[in-house]
Design a protein that fits this description.
CATH class: Alpha Beta
Number of domains: 1
Low-confidence stretches: 1-10
Structural class: alpha/beta
CATH superfamily: Vaccinia Virus protein VP39
Number of helices: 5
Distance between the termini: 36 Å
Oligomer: single chain
Strand content: 25-35%
Strand order of the largest sheet: 3-2-1-4-5-7-6
CATH architecture: 3-Layer(aba) Sandwich
Helix content: 25-40%
Mean pLDDT: 87
Length: 218
């Protein structure tokens, strides 16, 4: 449900990737900040136990910035394929540029928690990325993702905001190869156990975004 930018050339700055954080619509702003709040909650980040945390597709660093401002004791890292990510500076956070779809993009058994918010639906072939994420998580580590439902209500809201039912057309568009339900199946099939799923703003037909946590199985 992005609102600005030109899909033919792609976002030029990190803030163009998810303009919803600064949307003029307070409901849209609430939805996108609330999904971060829930993602952090589902990640079970015990403040008393320092963990290695990676935010894949970190964009402008909204999630990592929230942890940094809270003086999180965790070791925080972010990765994004956008060229501008190399200029991102967040206190206490290590930022790198990388492509999740490329083999060897992530180190082995390096993280206790991995966030991947609104990223996987844009990747057509998920076997390699999900294999990399699973390999990067230590045994018992958690993966937290968010994804659009692509329900009739979701598409209707997109039409109201953007004037199109298609996710691949209009301002700041990006093709969705998957939606929340199919992603949940793909992640589970890749060696993860789904622990919890929450829907925003409400469950059922009014769900727009799903926030899900998975544990690395085995």
């Amino acid at each position: 449900m992005t609102e600005q930018g030109d899909p033919r050339r792609g976002p030029e700055t990190l803030t163009d990737i998810v303009p919803e954080y600064r949307s003029r619509n307070p409901v849209v702003r609430w939805l996108f900040w609330k999904r971060i709040e829930w993602a952090l909650d589902l990640a079970a980040l015990d403040a008393g136990v320092p963990l290695d945390v990676m935010d894949l597709g970190c964009g402008e660093g909204a999630l990592l910035g929230k942890l940094s401002k809270a003086r999180s004791p965790h070791r925080l890292k972010g990765m994004d394929s956008h060229p501008a990510v190399t200029s991102l500076r967040i206190p206490g956070v290590e930022i790198t540029r990388g492509d999740l779809t490329k083999p060897g993009s992530l180190p082995s058994a390096a993280f206790d928690r991995v966030f991947c918010l609104d990223v996987l639906e844009h990747i057509e072939f998920l076997a390699e990325p999900l294999g990399s994420i699973r390999g990067a998580l230590r045994p018992g580590g958690l993966l937290v993702i968010t994804a659009p439902t692509e329900s009739l209500f979701h598409k209707t809201c997109r039409f109201v905001l953007k004037g199109t039912f298609s996710e691949a057309e209009g301002p700041a568009a990006g093709r969705h190869y998957h939606h929340a339900s199919t992603l949940a199946e793909a992640v589970s099939s890749a060696g993860f156990l789904c622990l919890e799923a929450r829907s925003l703003p409400l469950a059922g037909p009014l769900a727009l975004i799903r926030v899900m946590s998975f544990r690395r199985d085995g």
